[in-house]
UniProtKB/TrEMBL annotation, chain A:
Organism: Bemisia tabaci
Domain ORC5 lid: 210-254
Start and end residues of each Origin recognition complex subunit 5 C-terminal domain: 302-431
Orc1-like AAA ATPase domain: residues covered: 22-162
Protein name listed in UniProt: Origin recognition complex subunit 5
Protein's UniProt keywords contain Manganese: no
UniProtKB/TrEMBL annotation, chain B:
Keyword Ubl conjugation: no
Domain (Origin recognition complex subunit 3 N-terminal) ranges: 3-332
Main location: nucleus
InterPro entries in the cross-refs: ORC3, ORC3_ins, ORC3_N, ORC_WH_C
Pfam families tied to this protein: ORC3_ins (PF19675), ORC3_N (PF07034), WHD_ORC (PF18137)
One biological process term in Gene Ontology: DNA replication initiation
Keywords: DNA replication, DNA-binding, Nucleus, Phosphoprotein
Intracellular or extracellular location(s): Nucleus
Domain Origin recognition complex subunit 3 insertion intervals: 348-577
Name of the protein described by the UniProt record: Origin recognition complex subunit 3
Domain called Origin recognition complex subunit 3 winged helix C-terminal: residue spans: 591-697
Amino acid sequence: MADGSFYFHLHPLKEKLTKKYPRRDNEINTLLGLFAVPEEQMLPSLIVYGLSSTGKTSILLELLTLVKVKHCVVNCIEAYTNRLLLKPIIETFLGQERCETENIRCDSIMQFVHLLKAESKSNKTFRESPHIIVLKNCNKLSEIQLQAFARISELTEKDNLCCIMITQIVPSQFNFNYPIQTIVFPQYSKDDLLCILWSQRPPEYPEEFYRDYLNLFLGYFLHVCRDLKELKNWVKIVFNKYVEPIEKKELKLSDSNLRSLLFRAIKPYLQKITNCVYLGTDFSIKGAVEPESKLGNSAIDLPMYTKYLLIAAYLASFNSPKYDKRLYLKGSDKAKKRAAIKHTAEKSVKQCLGPKAFSLNRLLAIFYAICDEPVNLTVNIYSQIASLIELRLMMHTNSDNLDEPKFKTTAPFSCVEDVGKNIKFDLKNYLLGV
Amino acid sequence: MDPTNSISEGVFAFNPKPKKNAKNKKAPNEFAFFKHNDWYKSFDSVWSEIHQKVVEEENKITSELQSKVNKFAHSAESSTDTIPTIIMLTGVNLSDHKQLFKNIDDYILNNSKSFTATLWADSCTNIRNMIESLVYQIETTGGEPDSEYLEHDEDSDSEEHQYISIKRANQTLPHLVNWFNNLEANQAEEPTKKKSKTETEITTSPRIIIILPDFEAHDEKVLQDFILILSGYGSKLPIVFIFGVASMISAVHDTLPNHVISKLSLELFKTPRSKDFLNSTIDSVFLTPDCPFMISGKVLNFLNEVFLCYDFSLKGLITSLKFCIMDHFFESGCTQYCWPRKNLADVINNLAPEQLTNLKRVPSFAELIEKRKRTNDPPPPKTAQDYKNLIIEKLKELHESIKVFYVGLHCLQILVQDLPERDLPLGSDLRELYIKAMISTIIESNEYEECMKTLRFSSKPALIEKLKKILDYLKKPEVQLPTVENCRRKVERLLKKIETASPEVNSASESPSKSPSKKMLQKRGDLSQYCLELQQKKMSEFEIVREEVLKTLTSEVFNELLVKLTKLPFHEELIYNKRSAVKEAMIGMPRGAVVRALANPQKALQCNCCKLRDEGEILKTMPDICIVYKLHLRWATLINVYDWMLSFKSIVEPKSEDDEISPEIHARFTQAVADLQFLGYIKHTNVKKDHVVRLTFER
């Protein structure tokens, strides 16, 4: 391998890849070592592991295209049937027209193996040319499928067939019964990120200025997010905001204390916006800029009695039934207060334990206790319980038991509190120990 | 089925003949039975008129949203990374969403070349179903126009599958990609063909728009996979998502984890609040003098309550109103003669004698005749023609009063609608004012008084502006009536007066009192006297005029305009006022219904044998379970089963003297008790073996 011609062949590829994907030299080297000369003996299978947006798929696919090896990529999430998994592979390897004219079907792994086996026996070019199967998100495959693909070259008796499995889950989760080589794409460090983001700087600003900005940006964002895609997105949005004073001609690039001035201007925005990371790009910008009414839970607008039902459900979930009598029977105010003081410790633990299930009768009893007006028990009330469940503010815990249905609230405290404020109902008065 | 002529014994298979014209079969009109009745004809015409207006109104409210959504769906950049996604916060009125999304869907189809698929949660239980349904719907929207129509018709969904069939194995995304590419290639080849149509369309390439109307109801895992899969196709297909989120925006973030949501770029849209829907529909469809149907304040109040307190459902509201209209026309036989405004005289003059008799029997009219007979001033009508003339006269009067009433209502609304929120005892919406004015005389109510109190603090420009607005309204050509004319003149006069009134306190009269007051301020009593004087004197000219204006408005304008409609003859015929009937028909009360049926089975069974003289009576003829139920009411918490059975026997067989209980009675009793237990009225107890516990008590 050490002769000059090999490196001569390798060099342009490596140059190209490392330039496009900075700070991935090690991984690119290993991959090139494995696949640069595909005609040589290939690994039977390989696992590529790394968290999202660490460059696994893009580097691998680019490399495979550059070395001109026949490969097929399947996203395993999409392969909800065997056919969807296997058909694209067969079609790439055997040619789509041939599959259609000969009406080749492939509905199981066994069929797949037989097909490839027969092909490699009868067709010399197929046998001798290297083939690669790339399975993205391979953790979505079933155990049997995974095992079969890991040993696919052994099963099909075709030496130069390789299966590359890309996963975001630690490879030790898959229990293969023999070792498979793994390439790990580590997460980008701060320096790596700086370098990558630096490579995409806007040309109209001086380098020093942008470096300062990047340092500031990463200082805030690295706590909440290390996802490169997300960061790339945000770095543009925040930069536009950052240079706003300069664009508006309020500040000049030549100002002496420009840095601190800009920092003072951007600080509140940054603090707000770091809460919005991961919320989906476009909307969260607006959410951060506009007041919180849009983001906040106060947006929920329920019919009158549904509000009471939601509150009743929340109380039923977070108060133990043994205090119901004290809380909801009139004329037991003293007891209520005592209970509230006494059980503070117990209650705060309960809040942490999450909602408890309650029966329909208890829900209705509390509903009638807190709702001052005399309400008839109509189908509309029942249907509102159903729609609360559909809105995911409540859930059915034992849907198979028709006689005694049980529910839980899944609504967050802030949401129920807002609803309570809306109808002038102080939730905290009824909630023990909050 | 043909009879078989074979003498041998055997089993013959009769294959059902395919039904002809199955595709044209329509749901039978459930009212076909009444087709020839007069009341149905008039109901039908009134209802179709109102229904059309409701639909128009609905479109008016949502059209803006629809066009916005459509515009966004076609203008959003679909980059390779993210799929543009519209999140529509739709509010919690779940039953209306079907219509809303159907409208949006139709709008997009009509105004662009895009393809849409609507995926409801109940048909997407797993990822395979979801994708198959998506591919099927997308590929069939491109089909013939009539098949597209059928697809949106729920009933014909199953039939439609016969026409365009795609092999289930082909309902995959790769197939969709091929199909879409072919389509684009075809369209590129023959661009002239569709040109005439495209002029009005948005000139962008077609998109694939996927609508998930009930986002929360979808299974989380399926949804995540669905989005991840489609994001892989983002570069090949121009996909746009529309998510209908009913509760809160945080529902999206709770359902989708970060790695999924980073595949979407979200855009938020909000539908108008359901209360706005209610207001606009009620105000512009029902609360106009043109609407051929009036609801009494109580019924409207009830419907409002149902809407605001229970479900926010416009669909439910419209259904209830439809019931009201139907009930109104069905119950009173002569409503249809009272409505036509233009040819009222002709209709009444051509009435058959029995129809006239019906009209005469209308309570409010009969009362009027009775009164005239008593006082003979003016003399009661004698001939049929006299009656007809009187009826025409009274009906015209009523029609006019209704018009005047609405004018008054609008004026009042102008006056009170922008008062500060906590001082809004009358409410700001027309419907709230309508309810109050219909139920009672509004100007005598406390709420009105409170409003006036607040108005007494209003500034000069504000008051002038309000009066001007009222005047503008009164000048409109459609409200020209003698009474209104009269009022308009009064308002004009008031306006003039207030415009000339000076806001200054008349200083000439005050200044001399200042100097002596200082002298007199030596006693405490004098101080209070002085304060009182100051208060009185502070009234400027404007303030005095303001007082007068409000008084005149109340006593002369609103008193004239807001007539009490329910005091006029024939009001029953025009104004629907059966709250209990609506309540019974539209609001189901399962527990209440069971209790009522058990306590008074005659109502449920409609038989003659069980008529009760009083509530507590128990008859032999009643069903066993009713007897057992009524008996169990006599006990406190615990019921001795043996005693219970003896009382049961004494009612079922009052004549037999012996204590022996026949097996038949025993069995009937046991059955009834078991039923009662099933309904949840009693349960067994371990405290006393031969007792059961009563579970329900009257309030």
